[in-house]
Amino acid sequence: MKRLGMLVIAATLMTSGCAAFKANDLPTLDRDSYAVQNEQRVKVYSSWRGREGNAMHKRHFDAALRTSGCCDIVDTADQADLVIDGVSVDESTPGVAIPAMISGFTFGVIPSWAALRVHLKATAIEGEKEHKYDVADSATMVIWLPMLLAMPFTGNPLTVEQDVYQNTYRNLVARMKNDGLLTN
């Protein structure tokens, strides 16, 4: 029993010395900030390029469009009222796993950190009009024993990556809405 208690305490300490800090370069948007009420939905086709995988970016963008209520997503550019050509700019930090492992092996005594940067460039084409967008946000994850005290007051390290991605795509959709591209 004593051994199990020590294992639980050690596991808690090993996973607790991590904190995530959002840069908040973009405003955090709720659904109402980018929601659109259309009588007739706009047909949107998007294609994405990026090192992380085209499907991931298309999935994030399509989810933000669906949540806004503005659009129907179509399979080809010929069917679309609005065509989006998007690029995810790779600004990742290669090799962050090695310092993180060292930090983990030392139970957080030796610190490490990793920066997550989501940078999207998109071109929206509606008929003859072309609109360019550039949105970016980031977060930093820190593994260090003193972060045990900071963790309750920072972003959740388990969800911060997903939160930053979703919010960046929401901001992209909100800018398109503000430019009148998602309304009829």
Describe the 3D structure.
The structure is a single chain. The protein is an alpha/beta fold. Helices cover about 35% and strands about 30% of the residues. The chain contains 6 helices and 6 strands. It has a 6-stranded mixed sheet with strand order 1-6-5-4-2-3. A hairpin with a 2-residue loop joins strand 5 and strand 6. Helix 3 crosses helix 6. The chain is elongated and about 65 Å long. The protein starts with a helix and ends in a 6-residue tail after the last helix.
Provide the descriptors you would attach to this structure in a database record.
alpha/beta; six-stranded mixed β-sheet; 6 helices; elongated
Number of strands: 6
Q: What is the chain-wise order of helices and strands?
A: HEHEHEEHEEHH
- Main pleated-sheet profile: 6 strands, mixed
Beta fraction: 25-35%
Helical residues, percent: 25-40%
Helical stretch count? Answer: 6
| Cα gyration radius (Å) | 20 Å
CA-CA gap between termini? 66 Å
Global structural class: alpha/beta
Extract low-pLDDT stretches. Answer: none
Globally, the shape reads: elongated
Strand order of the largest sheet: 1-6-5-4-2-3
Q: Determine the mean pLDDT.
A: 85
